[in-house]
Write a structure and sequence with these properties.
The chain is an alpha/beta fold. It has 10 helices and 8 strands. The structure holds 2-acetamido-2-deoxy-beta-D-glucopyranose (4 copies).
């Protein structure tokens, strides 16, 4: 669907297979971006959890991927996720391969690696409920210990910092630290939302500095979505009208900190450039006024969800369950994750929006050109 909009789509690439050819580097538009390293949760996971034993946070079954060329790949949506679409806009030659896939080695990593794990968070203990997940700290360790040395073998180890400046480091995490940690009381009964959020931001700040120390220079920080408006949240509080406010308040608090971090952390990370993508604002604009953007349903999930009363989480689709006929009319595919149609809007705005309420201080296109 997206490739129709692209003037140049370099190569048809089978999932996980990359060639080292540089013919796809598009200098015509001035994009310097050679690839992406992706860290975070299910919103950006593209199959890593498939390879984890004892993980409940998996999307490796139908109807996930119903609109994806390769079917249920582990992406938590019907089609492409935000990273897939952003990659096309950056004219990368194919999907970024998931780290846990054994074929994600050697020449297959020269356009980046996706380390994200559904159910994971910024904090190490987030997501224990989802079984085996890979925390953000572990994801960064996987980059440091496995992919970075391999990348240096591919590209030559001299001047690592210059080489890594051609890559975007995308971080999309934090939502689960609230829904699968704070709001379950794991942080302790007396920790205020404010104190928890301050700690979460400080922890992320340390993690970003760690990536910078390894050579990362260009960062894309994704906001937490208005999860209080997701079917999972509204199903749990059925008497409440509209969205569940305490979940949205948490997201807003974290996002405000994240946006401030863009300015506060830059002096501590020499030569770094950061972009904050306010997917919260983008999504809540859609939810507030769905029909203006072609959506008919902004409150229910497109797939049949396995509810808490059925032993589920209220998030994931039922294995082999029914789905809505027109996915493009729905904001949410399952109880939490947006449809490809929404991912398309988020990625498009991340790439080219001129509104500071959506991208701060500038968009990903500019980030890839400077
Ligand atoms: C998580 O999955 C990995 C890969 O299959 C496995 O090596 C590890 O033992 C698992 N951990 C747990 C706690 O199940
Ligand atoms: C939590 O706060 C309440 C009221 O401030 C106090 O009575 C209680 O001892 C605190 N509990 C813990 C474990 O700190
Ligand atoms: C966050 O809180 C945990 C638990 O109290 C603490 O161990 C950790 O040092 C804190 N991290 C930061 C960066 O403040
Ligand atoms: C599906 O929904 C989209 C968005 O509202 C609309 O543009 C499209 O025409 C619909 N497709 C069909 C087959 O009805």
């Amino acid at each position: 669907m997206m490739s129709k909009n692209l003037p140049v789509f370099c190569a048809i690439v089978i999932f996980g297979l990359f060639t080292q050819s540089s013919t796809c580097t598009n200098t015509k538009h001035g994009y310097k971006t050679k690839g992406m390293f992706v860290f975070g949760s299910s919103l950006v996971d593209n199959g890593n959890n498939n390879f984890l034993r004892n993980s409940f946070a998996k999307a490796d079954f139908s109807p996930y991927g119903v609109d994806f060329p390769l079917g249920a790949s582990g992406r938590f949506t019907n089609g492409e996720n935000v990273i897939d679409i952003l990659g096309k806009k950056l004219q990368l030659p194919g999907y970024i391969p998931p780290f846990n896939d054994p074929s994600t080695r050697g020449t297959n990593i020269v356009h980046g690696v996706n380390f994200a794990s559904g159910g994971s968070g910024i904090l190490d203990n987030t997501g224990a409920l989802a079984g085996n997940v890979t925390s953000l700290n572990e994801q960064i360790s996987n980059f440091e210990k496995v992919s970075l040395p391999e990348l240096e073998q591919q590209l030559g180890s001299n001047n690592r910092k210059k080489r890594l400046s051609d890559y975007l480091f995308v971080v999309g995490s934090g939502g689960n630290d609230y829904s699968l940690n704070y709001f379950l009381g794991l942080a302790g009964a007396n920790v205020s939302l404010q104190a928890f959020t301050t700690n979460l931001t400080a922890t992320l700040s340390t993690q970003l500095k760690r990536l910078h120390g390894l050579g990362a220079r260009k960062f894309v920080l994704m906001a937490i979505n208005p999860n209080g408006c997701s079917p999972m949240a509204t199903a749990r509080v059925p008497t409440q009208e509209g969205c569940v406010e305490n979940l949205n308040r948490a997201s807003l608090m974290f996002n405000a900190n994240l946006k401030n971090l863009v300015d506060d952390i830059r002096p501590q990370m020499p030569a770094s450039k950061l972009v904050f993508v306010n997917s919260y604002n983008i999504l809540s604009d859609i939810i507030t006024s769905p029909t203006s953007q072609g959506f008919r349903d902004a409150s229910s999930s497109c797939c049949e969800v396995r509810q808490v009363s059925e032993g589920g989480t209220g998030i994931l689709c039922k294995r082999g369950g029914s789905i809505c006929t027109n996915r493009s009319e729905y904001v949410f595919f399952d109880g939490l994750h947006p449809t490809e149609a929404v991912n398309d809007i988020i990625a498009t705005k991340a790439f080219s929006s001129l509104l500071r309420a959506e991208v701060y201080p500038y968009n990903v296109r500019k980030l890839s050109q400077i």
